[in-house]
């Protein structure tokens, strides 16, 4: 694309605001894709030879994918310089919680028959389940405090609380890694781990640059 055209399009203040506003419904439909796919596969009897294992794993994977998309929103805002993308963050976070909830329910129902004592035993016995459970509790806290009302009530503590998402991301990778360690199969989980580390590294770098900027401004005041 010639430079004058791209400049004209991308430099417009309203361009990113438009993308952010119009992209939200598209993102919502995209978020429902995994659910629609499971129904489609179920309807056509294609949920593999082991549907329980397939749904249990698939829901965990989609929860992780949604979590990583949520973590992409801040870098996207910083790269475009447009805060309108923040509108997407809550929706992506809620989709993360939704798929994590289905994943947890699959385990509670199909693995543990909804017996509380069996669930507690499994959490105590298998460390990878304990880590997944901790990550799930963290996601539940973030989902229930994602409302405007919670933002108002918690004030500046809200942002601090929502930094929990970084700990959750690491916990989910540990959960996934531990699960695959039993099978000595680290190929896919390594890709997710690298993406997660990249996204967390981006934030660390951003914070360091901002601190440096503030210090420089203070020095020249
Ligand atoms: C109550 C909390 C959780 C429990 C009890 C749990 C349980 C499990 C179990 C039993 C598996 C193995 C599934 C199988 O081999 O059939 C698994 C795998 C997995 N879980 Fe979780 N999990 C929890 C939370 C989470 C959360 C919060 C996430 C992501 C946000 C997550 C992501 C994954 C992923 C990516 C896998 C690997 C899927 C694969 O093998 O392809 N889990 N989890």
The gist of it:
It is built from 11 helices and no strands. It is an all-alpha fold.
How are the SSEs ordered, and which strands pair?
Blueprint: H1 3-10, H2 13-31, H3 33-43, H4 51-80, H5 86-111, H6 116-125, H7 127-144, H8 148-154, H9 157-162, H10 164-181, H11 187-220
Helix pairs in contact: 2-5, 4-5, 4-11, 5-7, 6-7, 7-10, 10-11
Bound molecules: protoporphyrin IX containing FE (HEM).
Protoporphyrin IX containing FE binds at residues 53, 56-57, 60-61, 63-64, 67, 100, 103-104, 107, 129, 132-133, 135-136, 139, 172, 175-176, 179.
Name a few traits of the molecule.
221 residues, mainly alpha, single chain, Four Helix Bundle (Hemerythrin (Met), subunit A), 0% strand, globular
CATH class category: Mainly Alpha
Q: Are any ligands bound, and if so which?
A: protoporphyrin IX containing FE
Structure classification: mainly alpha
How large a portion of the residues is in β-strands, by DSSP E? under 5%
Q: Over all CA atoms, what is the radius of gyration? A: 20 Å
Mean pLDDT: 93
User: What coarse outline follows from CA principal-axis ratios?
Assistant: globular
Please give the domain count.
Answer: 1
Helix content: over 70%
The count of DSSP E runs of length 2 or more, i.e. the number of strands, is 0
User: How many angstroms does the end-to-end distance come to?
Assistant: 43 Å
Look up the CATH topology: Four Helix Bundle (Hemerythrin (Met), subunit A)
Note the total helix count.
11
**Helix and strand pattern:** HHHHHHHHHHH
Main beta-sheet annotation = none
Q: pLDDT below 50 for ≥5 consecutive residues: which ranges?
A: none
Shape-level CATH architecture: Up-down Bundle
